[in-house]
Amino acid sequence: MVSLKQALEEATEEYFLPGNSCCAGCGLEIALRWAMKALGPKTALVAPASCLNVVVGLWPKTAPEFPFINMAFAAGAAAATGFDAAFKAKAFRFPEGKWDEMTALVFAGDGGTTDIGIQGLSGAAERNSDILYVCYDNEAYMNTGIQRSSSTPHGAKTTTTPFGKQRYKKDVPRIMEAHDIPYVATCSISEPLDLYEKFKKAKNIKGCRYIHILAPCPPGWGFPAEDTVEIARLAVKSGFWILYEVENGKKTLSKASKRLLDPEKRLPLMDYVQTQKRFSTLSEKALIELQDRIDKQWRTLENELRCQ
Questions:
Q1: Which pTM value belongs to this model?
Q2: Which domains does the chain have, with CATH numbers?
């Protein structure tokens, strides 16, 4: 486990610079900053259409201190697979350039992952392409007007679900587990050391790796910008967002979630949802349904851990 002191000593460089056009309190910015501290400058990023697609590419405020390419919604994983093939070819022709040390990274939103990009992602996972695919999940299409995605939670308001979404959130980390890839993990911007450690680990694993990060969005979720980290922390403490990793088929709960196997130690879900305007129309019935769904996920997880 990385200590705070160790992380601060290692993670002094900033590869995603200030002065960018992220909204105040943007969970994406926190996620990408800590991810790049772990991955370092030998990283080439693919940014499918998303909030990040706008942030990285607007001259003269281009924020990254590393190579990147803006890409169409559906093609993130395919483009990163191309990056990886190019790095392997360069490493063969010019071994002194250490091209084999490059990381092909996709940093996509939930729309470009759980919906429009999932075909390309599934294909890359089936091929076990040597890429690191990251979904920063703000649970809607925030850049185009806060429309619902398949990652939007049950009961949450968006511009296309004004009375609350009726369906449940698609569990993409479990879908990626089913692809039998070397590494799958979930993170939250409220746990930067956990995020940092998981990216450090993923960097040194070959094959297709997938990391899913909870990245709250102040304007999209309806909360003050200064509350981003606390709201992400409440998501974890209430059991709404479970932190774990799956390495070569073995699942392990992360420290912040491990203690929550005991349901008595989880905060009431109301503590989390009442902090956000997007849940302002959440009925008592929908709240109970959402809590039942979360409790079922924890029971399923407990059985999986017991059977390993």
A1: 0.96
A2: 4-307 (3.40.50.970)
